[in-house]
Amino acid sequence: MANGIAIMTSGGDSAGMNPAIKCAVEYAAQRGHEPFLVYDGLRGLIDDKIVPSTRELVSGIMHRGGTMLRSSRSKRFFDLKFRRQAYENLQRRGIDKLIVIGGDGSFRALNQFYADFGIPFAGIPATIDNDIAGTDYCLGVDTALNIIRQSIDSIRDTASSFSRAFVVEVMGRHCGYLALVSALSCGAEVCLVPEVPYDLDKIGIRLRKEIAEGRGYILAITAEGTKMADYLTRWINDTIGMETRLTVLGHVQRGGSPTVLDRIMAYKFAVAAVDALDAGATNAIMVYRDGTYGSLPIDAVAHQQYKLDPALFRLAGPLAT
Ligand SMILES: Nc1ncnc2c1ncn2[C@@H]1O[C@H](COP(=O)(O)OP(=O)(O)OP(=O)(O)O)[C@@H](O)[C@H]1O
Ligand SMILES: O=P(O)(O)OC[C@H]1O[C@](O)(CO)[C@@H](O)[C@@H]1O
Ligand SMILES: [Mg+2]
C-alpha cells in the first residue's frame, strides 16, 4: 500500500513555513509514512521536483525565514493537462497524500486537484495576510507584525526628530489585519484599512486640533488594499500642512527568522495535519480559533470571505475618523 506523504509550500512565503516543513517530515515519519519534499510549490509538482525527505534535508532550518522548499504562483496549475502531469509524478512514487503549507489560493488549487484525482490533502494556513476564513492565525503573521513594529518604531524616531508626518503602507492584499494590529501596537494616529469606512474630513479636524495642542509629528498606517498611501501622503502634506514622507514597507515584511509563536504554531499545525490525514480527512484545513486547534472542511475556509475580528474592527474606528 502506498504511504507517501508529500510536503510542499505554495503562494507567498511566510515565516513559520520552515518549522512546519521540518515538523511535518519528522512527525509523518514517526507515524509510519514515507515523507517526500516538493520543491518550487505547484510548479515543482508539475515539473517533478519531488525527492524523498531525510532528517538531514530538514535539519538546521528552524530559524530560517521564507521556505527552504521555495514557492511559486503557477498559471499552469489551472490547466487540467498540467495537473494530470503532477498527479502522474505522485503516482509513480507511491505518494497518496499531500500537505500544503500556504494560503487560500493554494488550498483551492489542492482542492481542485483532489476533485480531479482524489489525492487527499491537509492544508496548513501560512500567509502574512491573515486572510483565511475560519482561522484566527496563519503562520508568518507574528513575524511580519514584529518586522513592521520594528520599522515603525524606527520611523517614529525620525518623524519626531523632524516634526514630520509619515505614511507607512503595509502588505495584506485585501485584508487590513496587519495594518490595524500594527497601528494599534505602534500607537499610530491614523489607520486606513479596506474593511473600515474612513472619513478624511473628521481625521483632519482631529489632527489639526492635536497639532494646536502640541502634537509634533504624525504616524499614519495604510493597508495596501486601500490604495490610499500616495493620496494620504499628499493630503496630510497639503491639507494638514505638515511635511509628509511615504514609506512602503514591501517585501521586507515577508522575511526574517520566525518568532517563537510562529515556530510553535507551525509544530501544532503540522502535527494536526498528519493526524487529520491519518484519520481519513480528504480536504481539511488546520485552524486555530478562540484558543483551540482543529480543522475545517475546505469549503468553510477557501470559499468563505475572511472577516476582521469584531473587537479589532471596533478599535479601528477612532483611527479612521
Ligand atoms: N482554482 C484553482 N485551480 C488551480 N490552481 C489554483 C486555483 N486557485 C489558485 N491556484 C494556484 O494556487 C497558487 C497560489 O495561490 P495564491 O497565489 O492566491 O497564493 P496563496 O496560497 O493564497 O498565498 P498568499 O495569498 O499568501 O500569497 C496560484 O498561483 C495558482 O497557481
Ligand atoms: O510576492 P508577490 O507575488 O509580489 O505578492 C505580494 C502579495 O503577497 C503577499 O505578500 C502575501 O499574500 C501580499 O501581502 C502581497 O500583496
Ligand atoms: Mg491568499
From TrEMBL:
Amino-acid positions noted as binding ATP in the UniProt annotation, renumbered to this chain? 12, 73-74, 103-106
**Pathway(s) of this molecule:** Carbohydrate degradation; glycolysis; D-glyceraldehyde 3-phosphate and glycerone phosphate from D-glucose: step 3/4
Keywords of the record, alphabetical order, are: Allosteric enzyme, ATP-binding, Cytoplasm, Glycolysis, Kinase, Magnesium, Metal-binding, Nucleotide-binding, Transferase
By its UniProt entry, which PROSITE patterns does this protein fall under?
Answer: PHOSPHOFRUCTOKINASE
Name the catalysed reactions.
beta-D-fructose 6-phosphate + ATP = beta-D-fructose 1,6-bisphosphate + ADP + H(+)
> Where along this sequence does the record place binding of substrate?
127-129, 164, 171-173, 224, 245, 251-254
- Which SUPFAM superfamilies does this one have? Phosphofructokinase
Cofactor list: Mg(2+)
Q: Which residues cross the membrane?
A: none
Function of the protein? Catalyzes the phosphorylation of D-fructose 6-phosphate to fructose 1,6-bisphosphate by ATP, the first committing step of glycolysis.
Q: What is this protein called?
A: ATP-dependent 6-phosphofructokinase
Q: What organism is listed for this UniProt entry?
A: Luteolibacter pohnpeiensis
